[in-house]
Design a protein that fits this description.
The complex is a heterodimer. Chain A is built from 12 helices and 12 strands. By secondary structure, chain A is of the alpha/beta class. In chain A, helix 4 runs parallel beside helix 6. In chain A, about 45% of the residues are buried. The model of chain A has no long low-confidence stretch (mean pLDDT about 90). In chain B, a hairpin with a 2-residue loop joins strand 11 and strand 12. Chain B has 11 helices and 12 strands. Helix content of chain B is about 30%, strand content about 25%. Chain B is of the alpha/beta class. The chains are: A alpha/beta, B alpha/beta. At the A-B interface, helix 7, helix 8, helix 10 and helix 11 of A face helix 7, helix 8 and helix 10 of B.
């Protein structure tokens, strides 16, 4: 585990976020437990990967930390301070240090604003700088993310996908945050563009002393970028370990299946020996006990009765009775 | 030649607001019976346009400027369009789309939609020719053939592992998950008993564990039935899984074609090398390709990769290199191919 230097920058304790399901009359008939009792800590300067398949709750977790969704239960401590229950006004003082980069930058940049205005806006909200001072910072940041000055006068639709991501990132970095939540930062990018965006994330992390919460379904990218990785399945963390340990010696049967599903060039064809059958259960109808038991090769009677807690295995934490 | 499909010197351009985009530039590609060919490349390289041109469904604004597409020796571009529609498109050549969500109508049951396909494209329907028949809409669907088709549909649904196929036919598309819908699309592509399936990024929208299931299913079914596949993808890993041979495209030109193992182990084109190097590695090293993909409106002359290539010389700028063999079926269009070392 990371050395216990200072305190974690972000600490999430038993966090839950449920969404109600309502029928045609607006009556509540159940709930989707998108995030259901997640605890983890992010240490200053590290990149923590959060992986899992669609619907596992990884984006909901990121958005709940960010305050886009209010938590149903649990605590979110940022820099030692509880921020889960803050009101709008207090929240704004935290927002400056905690920033979120959306999955689809094309949709998260206002199509009618030029890059210049997009980059000025965060400074207008969070600082009292003069226009000239802001302009200086905007130009400096644009250079940091590797775009020419001429791009200040372009609209988002005139930029390529990789460039839009650079603008999205520049916008969040304008206010000098300490923690950046990257939600699927490379999905939809070609591999060569992805490589240059990943290089940029690394360079900016060093330049601005950033801590990343890196949410992705792409295991190869997570392996290359993250020091520690948490694997989620149906709203719960099933395994948390250092990246090298997790990828070399996965303990949870779900992590093993997930890793074995990724095609590795030069390796064995996964289509020859991939064994996981079925699809994840409907999140409104979660199995009792261990959530993975309906697809698990190691399943036994105990799994239906008792939900396994995260426990230490030496290398990391794993939530399985038999791993 | 023993080729099933042979595309030669095919050029396609699109008229856009900003000018004429040369989306395909003298592309040549051949597929043998039973062969699974991966067409890889980054967005905008023209792989989907090539797939659509072969199917004869180029979107509005697209125009074929030259070249030929030979199907079992006949040029599809110069054949009677009605004959192509009746015998080839949707029968001899079928299609698996990228997006299983928008490819089925939300208003009709899966059974209605599959039987509608079978009415026109069933292998039991004789070739009607083009003249002297009732207009298509008036012709009915004979009961005996309908019953035989329905049995075939249920067989194929079982083959793609759709649970309870009888019930599945009565359900609406939204009642299926993304992975199940992609299984339905595979079933629909197999039903006319095609010789070639064009699969356009069939697993891009799926999670990795579902992707692995679908790739395995697709591989088993096409090998068992001896169907050829043209599989377009931007994901090199899935090409490695599924394909016998891989063709890489860049900015509308095909650059290299090689048996899968040779392609990944001994790439000869500098672009292929760069592309493979830009994949994230376990060691965490990240290498990108300097520069950007060129605009297809006024693209670079000669080899379109030359502005980003370390080995570019005057002749690369002047004229596009011809394909030449590296070893066996491994062919590369480059004046300065990388040696195997």
């Amino acid at each position: 585990m990371s050395e216990p230097r200072a305190a974690p920058l972000l600490e999430v304790v038993d966090l839950a976020r449920h969404f109600p399901i309502r029928n045609a009359f607006g009556l509540r008939t159940g709930s989707i437990r998108a995030v259901d009792g997640v605890s983890l800590a992010v240490w200053p300067g590290e990149t923590l990967g959060l992986v899992g398949e669609s619907g596992c709750g990884k984006s909901t977790l990121g958005k709940t930390v960010m305050g886009i969704h209010g938590p149903t239960a649990g605590e979110i401590r940022f820099g030692g301070r509880e921020i889960g229950g803050l009101g709008r006004r207090e929240r704004r003082t935290v927002a400056r240090h905690l920033q979120y980069v959306y999955q689809d930058p094309g949709a998260s940049l206002d199509p009618r604003w030029k890059v210049r205005r997009l980059l000025h806006e965060p400074l207008q909200i969070h600082t009292a700088l003069s226009r000239a001072e802001r302009q200086e910072q905007v130009e400096a940041m644009l250079r940091e993310v590797g775009l020419p000055d001429a791009h200040l006068d372009l609209y988002p639709h005139e930029l390529s996908g990789g460039q839009q991501r650079r603008v999205g990132l520049a916008r969040t970095l304008m206010v000098r945050p300490s923690l950046v939540i990257l939600d699927e930062p490379t999905s939809g990018l070609d591999v060569s563009v992805q490589a240059s965006v990943l290089k940029l994330f690394r360079r900016l992390q060093a330049a601005f002393a950033l801590t990343y919460l890196f949410i992705s379904h792409d295991l190869a990218v997570v392996r290359a970028m993250c020091q520690r990785v948490a694997v989620m399945y149906l709203g719960k963390v099933v395994e948390l370990a250092e990246a090298a340990v997790l990828f070399e010696d996965p303990r949870h049967p779900y992590t093993r299946s997930l890793l074995s599903a990724v095609p590795v060039i030069g390796g064995r064809r996964v289509t020859r020996d991939f064994a996981l059958e079925g699809e994840p259960p409907n999140p409104r109808d979660i199995p009792t006990g261990c959530r993975f038991r309906t697809r698990c090769p190691l399943v036994q009677d105990l799994c239906a009765v008792e939900s396994p807690p995260l426990r230490s295995t030496g290398g990391g934490l794993v939530a399985c009775h038999f791993a | 030649m023993s080729e099933l499909l042979s595309v030669s010197e095919l050029s396609v351009e699109f008229t856009t607001d900003r000018g004429v985009a040369q989306v395909l530039d003298r592309i040549s590609l051949a597929i043998a019976p039973g062969e699974v060919v991966g067409l890889v490349g980054e967005s905008g390289c023209g792989k989907t346009t090539l797939a659509r041109t072969v199917l004869g469904v180029l979107p509005a604004g697209g125009r074929i400027r030259g070249g030929a597409i030979h199907w079992e020796g006949r040029d599809l571009l110069r054949m009677d369009a009605r004959l192509v529609n009746d015998e080839i498109r949707g029968r001899a050549i079928t299609f698996i789309p990228q997006d299983p969500w928008s490819s089925l109508s939300p208003l009709f049951t899966v059974g209605t939609q599959i039987m509608d396909l079978m009415k026109w494209k069933s292998p039991r329907r004789g070739v009607t020719g083009t003249r002297g028949h009732w207009p298509a809409l008036v012709r009915g669907y004979p009961g005996a053939r309908r019953r035989a088709d329905r049995e075939a549909v249920l067989d194929v649904l079982r083959a793609v592992q759709i649970p309870e196929p009888e019930r599945a036919l009565r359900r609406l598309p939204h009642e299926f998950s993304g992975g199940q819908r992609q299984r339905l699309m595979i079933a629909m592509a197999l039903l006319p008993r095609p010789d070639l399936i064009i699969a356009d990024e069939p697993t891009t929208a799926l999670d990795v564990t579902i992707q692995a299931q679908i790739l395995r299913l697709l591989r088993d079914l096409v090998k068992e039935r001896g169907v050829s596949v043209l599989f377009t993808t931007h994901d090199l890993g899935t090409a490695y899984e599924l394909c016998d041979r891989v063709v890489v495209m860049y900015a509308g030109q095909e650059m290299e074609s090689a048996p899968t193992d040779a392609f990944f182990e001994r790439p000869a084109h500098p672009y292929t090398r760069r592309l493979l190097d830009s994949l994230p590695t376990a060691g965490g090293e990240i290498r990108d390709i300097p520069g950007e993909v060129p605009s297809l409106i006024g693209p670079p002359p000669g080899c379109r990769f030359h502005p980003r290539c370390d080995y570019a010389t005057a002749e690369c700028r002047a004229r596009r290199p011809d394909a030449h063999a590296v070893e066996g079926a491994h062919r590369v269009r480059c004046y300065h191919p990388l040696s195997a070392a």
